[in-house]
Amino acid sequence: MSLTEFTHLVRSDLYRLHGRATLSAFLRVLLLGGSDGAYQYVFWMRACRYASAHPVLRVAVYPVARLVLRRYGYKYGIDIPYTTTIGSGFYIGHFGGIVVNSRAVIGKNCNISQQVTLGQANRGPRQGYPTIGDNTYIGPGAKIVGSVRIGDNVAIGANCVVTKDVPDNGVVVGVPGRVVSFDGSAHYVEFTDY
What we know:
The structure is a single chain. The protein is α/β, with parallel strands linked by helices. It has a domain at 3-77. Helices cover 32% and strands 19% of the residues. It contains five helices and 15 strands. The protein has helices spanning 3-18, 23-32, 37-52, 55-60, 62-76; strands at 78-79, 85-86, 91-92, 98-100, 105-106, 111-112, 117-119, 131-132, 137-138, 143-145, 149-150, 155-156, 161-162, 171-173, 178-181. The strands form three sheets. Strands 3-6-9-12-14-15 form a six-stranded mixed sheet. Strands 1-4-7-10-13 form a five-stranded parallel sheet. Strands 2-5-8-11 form a four-stranded parallel sheet, with no helix packed on it. A hairpin with a 4-residue loop joins strand 14 (171-173) and strand 15. The mean pLDDT is 93. InterPro entries: Hexapep (IPR001451), LbH_SAT (IPR045304), Trimer_LpxA-like_sf (IPR011004). GO terms for molecular function: acyltransferase activity. Keywords: Acyltransferase, Transferase. Pfam families: Hexapep (PF00132).
């Protein structure tokens, strides 16, 4: 990952949070946290990934970034490994109880809410890890388990359990999750034009 790519990711994540990506907004959120504390976790997750890929930073910056990331993981109840593939504009609406497998893939402009799990299935026809498309909203308490492909512009309802593929623009609810409409994630995923 280049410095330009790292900067783009950090700015796009901030833009998703506030609709702007200014230095003052970045410093306020990073230093003060508050209700935007999940951004602190996302920033340090991105910093760990960037620092781990560069020999000089791996020695000097990476250990500190890992320590800070671990602290925020405990503080906010988020377990998303820095090695997870996550596109630009990642947004955590409410922190707490979020668990993502390191091999899951998350597209750009994805919203994740509290108590969400993107987990591994160890056996059966869906053995593997989820792949989440772009502009996807994952509601509170939703669980996506196994080798499941979630399409672009999908909305997954609260406490939904998804174990099968979801087509683009699907709205999924229930246990097990079923598509109830094709209205997509419009009005759930905002500030995507960074």
